[in-house]
Amino acid sequence: IAQPDSQSHYGITSIRTALLRSVQVKTIRCAIYTRKSSEEGLELSFNSLHAQRESCEAYIISQAGEGWTCLTTRYDDGGISGGHMPRPGLKALIADIKADKVDVIVVYKVDRLTRSLTDFSKLVEVFDSHEVSFVSVTQAFNTTNSMGRLTLNVLLSFAQFEREVTGERIRDKIALSRKRGLWTGGLPPLGYNAIEKKLVVNDAEATAVRHIYQRYAELKNVRRLQAELKRAGYVSKRRTTKSGRQTGGMPFERGALYAILKNQTYLGLTTHKGEAFEGEHEPILDKALFDEVQSILSNNRRRDKHKAGAKNSSLLAGKIIAASGIILTPSHAQTKGRRYRYYVERRKGANEITDTTKRPVRLPAAEIEASVRSTLAEYLRDQIRLPDSLGLSSAQQDVRDSIFSKASEMADRIDAETLKPSEMEMIRSAVKAIKLEKEAAGYRLHIDIYALAGFLEINAIKGLADPEIEVTLKLLTCNNGKKVILGNSTPLTPLPMPALINALRLAHQIKGEYLSSRRRSLSEIAKSLNIDKRQVWRTLKLAFLAPDIQLAILSGTQPHGLCVQDIPDAQVRVDWNDQRAALGFA
Questions:
Q1: Strand locations in 425-488, DSSP E?
Q2: Cβ–Cβ under 8 Å, residues 152 and 145
Q3: How large is the angle between the packed helices 254-261 and 203-219, nearest 10 degrees?
Q4: Side-chain-side CA neighbours of residue 578 (13 Å)
Q5: Helix or strand holding residue 96 (H, E)
Q6: Which candidate, 245, 247, 229, places its Cα nearest to that of 237?
Q7: Beta-sheet strand order (sheet of 442-447)
């Protein structure tokens, strides 16, 4: 072999350089997601979505040396809130992630992807399961490491806080506007059109409303009124969405008729949380006819076979279905002058079950009724599931705000300590069925979506499935082997623990000094506080517990028996869900 000279050495160097250049850098496929909450400005040739995409494309180009390349597919959601998941652009993005078409998701800001901490945790699970990274251009976060997740969780907590504060401001504005008699948006009721944010009488529909009131005053029965209106060809309000889709124009459901017959808007009033105020729109009914209809409705409620207004009423009579298919019937027992109500599975005749080891279900009425009321109220306050069920996920923000306001008011009435006859009727109409699981270990609450839409004054729904909610129940086996509901998990009785609170306060004091401009070491802090350095380190970690865990400690609603000694170093983890599970907050 010849001795290397300068020329041969140059040749070897050239070969090495050529080989390095020939190595293919792995291509990283980047998907850009953009979103804008309102539709304002989307018609412009260059709008917010374009600006977000340009920034993301520039960032991807800056990472070209790492093999980043921008996908041509657009994942855009214009005029859609980030407070819920059902968005066309986001759905398409998730579908491509599951199809292994994306390696990195690039957004302008984190809140463009979602403003809900719960939704974000679900998205991160999808990203992690498909080994997809998430990058924010203006915040430079990467969810492939634990620190990135922690920082993102903190940031999204503030984003969710901002969204909730904005919602409170909107609700306050709606309340003030209604008290001044102004129309606050949403779907106008039958008989009116919304023109320039005001209710204007629709003469043809107003005639139909008057006919409905007059016929009910004569028939005094909603079922007969519904059948007559269907035969005569009366239909719900027709609407045309911005996309040109036609909705409504269907025969009236009973829930919608009840809503029309109790709507004080027809008297020229606006309502807010049960109070009526003089409105600026023109009335289409005279008060005498309206009062006559309300009197008939009230009398019919008092004659209800279930006696909704009576003491010890059976709110869910005919609604609870055992796993055997038998409908539970109301029953009661008298002990020492006290009356106990139950819903009982009676097995007689054709319904007889030969397996005697499976005892009939016997549920205490008060507990199951409280559970159903609580579940229904929680569903009405859910700003993600409720609009999905009603087909309003893509509706304008003012429409959703109006529906949420009515749903929240309905939830407050259902959750009240004592129920009026009108609330009893509302619950019975909204609850379609309660199907018990085996051994009454839980139930499925089926909600009548059309009755619910009627109470929320939404007539334009068609072909929607009734929502189903699963509820798990705690049970107790009595001496006779019958299952008795103890009820859902109840909130803990506040029990503040001074040791826990003082430790948390000290943790934030140490954190403040450690992160201050003075840059004091843990040893210096320990010396100034006259405590051991190891204790300073263990205590400092408490400041990084999830916000809801810290709030529970301060309010005394932490799991009973939780002590400072129960929080070893291993349990103060980066992932907040891991913290909750380890400390009994799951």
A1: 431-436, 442-447, 468-472, 474-477, 483-487
A2: no
A3: 100
A4: 11
A5: helix 88-98
A6: 247
A7: 320-321, 431-436, 442-447, 468-472
Q: For the chain, how many residues are written?
A: 586
The number of angstroms, rounded, from the C-alpha of 568 to the middle of its chain's C-alpha atoms is 34
Q: Which residues pair with 106 in a beta bridge?
A: 32, 135
Query: Which two structure tokens, joined as six digits, stand for 455?
Result: 């109470």
- What tokens appear for 436 in the block? 């018990």
Token code pair at residue 303 = 């004659």
Q: Both tokens of residue 61? A: 């180009």
**Does residue 426 contact residue 455 with C-beta atoms inside 8 Å?**
yes
* In the chain, % of residues over pLDDT 90: 8
pLDDT, tens digit, 9 for 90 and up, residues 341-352: 888 888 665 444
459: amino acid identity, one letter: N
Question: Angle 498-514/547-555 helices, nearest 10 degrees?
Answer: 140
HSE-CB of 9 using CA atoms within 13 angstroms: 4
Q: Which residues have C-beta within 8 Å of that of residue 254, sequence separation ≥ 6?
A: 222, 223, 226, 429, 451, 454
In whole angstroms, how far apart are CA 288 and each of 29, 220, 291?
69, 16, 5
User: Distance between CA atoms of 43 and 55, rounded to whole angstroms?
Assistant: 20
Q: Which structure tokens are listed for 285?
A: 């009914």
Q: In what helix (H) or strand (E) does residue 407 lie, and over which residues does it extend?
A: helix 397-414
**Selection from 144, 412, 131, 428 nearest residue 306 by Cα:** 428
Q: Which amino acid type is present at position 414?
A: I
The arithmetic mean of pLDDT across residues 459-486, rounded, is: 65
- Alpha carbons 74 and 53: distance in angstroms, whole number: 9
Reported pTM? 0.41
d(CA 143, CA 308): 54
Q: Dump pLDDT digits (tens) for 162-210.
A: 667 777 777 777 778 777 777 777 778 898 988 887 888 999 999 999 9
Residue 524 to residues 458, 504, 519, 520, 543, Cα–Cα distance (Å): 65, 20, 10, 6, 19
The alpha carbon torsion through 404, 408, 414, 418 (nearest 10 deg) reads -160
SS3 call for 161: helix
